[in-house]
Amino acid sequence: MQSPHSLESLPQSLSQWSVALKQFPYRVCPDQGLVETREALSGAYILVWAKELLIPDFAVLRPLVDDSTALNFCGLMPEAGNICVLLQSQADSQWCKDKLAGLEFNFDLVVLDKLPDLSQPGVVLMDMDSTTIQIECIDEIAVLADIGEQVSAVTAAAMRGELDFEQSLRSRVALLKDAPQSILKQVADNMPLMPGLQCLIDTIHSADWKVAIASGGFTYFAERLQQDLGFDHVQANVLEIENETLTGQVLGPVVDAQAKADILMQLKQQYSASQTMAIGDGANDLKMLAAADFGVAIHAKPLVQQQAQMSIKHSDLDGAVCILRAAKMLAA
């Protein structure tokens, strides 16, 4: 081992550390020094990212280091507009999560048992409303139909897991009876994409993975996203329309929490995928997130943040790109 680099001797911005350190990994010592090492670890990975990371941010991870548990600093790289840092612990993921429990960070941090391997087949399944796009489509339809407050209150309660999803969906759709079909196009023409969505889709397709939508929303909007952005598969609920008017009914079975998890497994088999990632924000996404190898909550409700494998709180879908490409830091 070479003599340690003290944090005081390193640039304040972690984005410049790769120039100063030259080669990875380094062992993070209890006194916060970094010592070059060839000794590999076999515990959990800790991935950290933000637009900017400074030494005080890095020092917040001190609970992961003690005299009996090693932590390797495996590398860093710019990715999707972020600075990404990859560490590996000697301990398992539950130990790391317990050590970090209750701490608040001004950057995103996830703990993983393994890293995605983009060289092997995979599929990413995404929720639509408040995940691929920044709105809840049914709330926007309701605003145009002059019943916005009635519908949005039910939507919020359903996403928090306070209501049965199918029952809440059918009751909201019933309120839209006699609304003109034309308002669907108005909403579809103005759907704000979640930042980082195009970068995520490009990353997925460049690795020959597949990307799909499973939504408790509506096919009208999911199919528009598929047409505009190239999703490989979309599945959502069908609004009944007669004489260019909404009937207030949903046709066929509702895409609920169990349906989303089932769709993930169907796509895994269909595409012969060895890895799956699911991304969502609401309580009806929890089964899908649990069924995936990498379940990612994004800007999620508290219940979902608590139960999901990992949670993106500060960044957007560019954070999912960081997770997918984290293994590149090991090969760099």
What does this protein look like?
It is a single chain. This protein has a seven-stranded mixed sheet. A six-stranded antiparallel sheet has the order 2-1-4-5-3-6. Helix content is 34%, strand content 24%. A hairpin with a 2-residue loop joins β9 and β10. The protein folds into two domains: 7-113, Alpha-Beta Plaits; 122-324, Rossmann fold, CATH 3.40.50. By secondary structure, it is an alpha/beta fold. The two termini are 20 Å apart.
Give the low-confidence spans: none
Shape: elongated
The tally of helices reads 14
Stated plainly, the CATH topology of the largest domain is called Rossmann fold
GO molecular function: hydrolase activity
Catalytic activity: O-phospho-D-serine + H2O = D-serine + phosphate; O-phospho-L-serine + H2O = L-serine + phosphate
Pathway: Amino-acid biosynthesis; L-serine biosynthesis; L-serine from 3-phospho-D-glycerate: step 3/3
Organism: Agarivorans aestuarii
Question: What labels would you give this structure?
Answer:
single chain; 332 residues; alpha/beta; Alpha-Beta Plaits; Rossmann fold; seven-stranded mixed sheet; six-stranded antiparallel sheet; 14 helices; 34% helix; 24% strand; hydrolase; amino-acid biosynthesis; magnesium; Phosphoserine phosphatase
Present the secondary structure layout.
Layout: H1 17-21, E1 26-28, E2 34-36, E3 45-50, H2 55-59, E4 71-79, E5 82-89, H3 93-100, E6 108-112, E7 122-126, H4 137-144, H5 148-159, H6 165-174, H7 182-188, H8 197-206, E8 210-218, H9 219-229, E9 233-242, E10 245-251, H10 257-270, E11 275-280, H11 286-291, E12 294-298, H12 302-307, E13 310-312, H13 318-324, H14 328-331
Parallel strand pairs: 7-8, 7-11, 8-9, 11-12, 12-13
Antiparallel strand pairs: 1-2, 1-4, 3-5, 3-6, 4-5, 9-10
Pfam families: Hydrolase
EC number: 3.1.3.3
Protein name: Phosphoserine phosphatase
